[in-house]
Specification:
By secondary structure, the protein is mainly α. It contains one helix and no strands. The radius of gyration is 20 Å and the shape is rod-shaped.
């Protein structure tokens, strides 16, 4: 019984971690797009 509970908790933490990294990846991608857009605007002005 203890093994089942431990396995369930471990699976929960792993799946939660995957969602967190997915969200982090989306945030980094959004920030990269913003930087690219700003760089393109500056380049057009020059």
């Amino acid at each position: 019984m203890k093994k089942v509970i431990i396995a369930s908790l471990a699976a929960m933490f792993v799946l939660t971690g995957c969602n967190t990294f997915k969200g982090l990846g989306q945030d980094v991608s959004s920030a990269g797009s913003a930087v690219t857009g700003t760089a393109q605007e500056v380049q057009r002005k020059i």
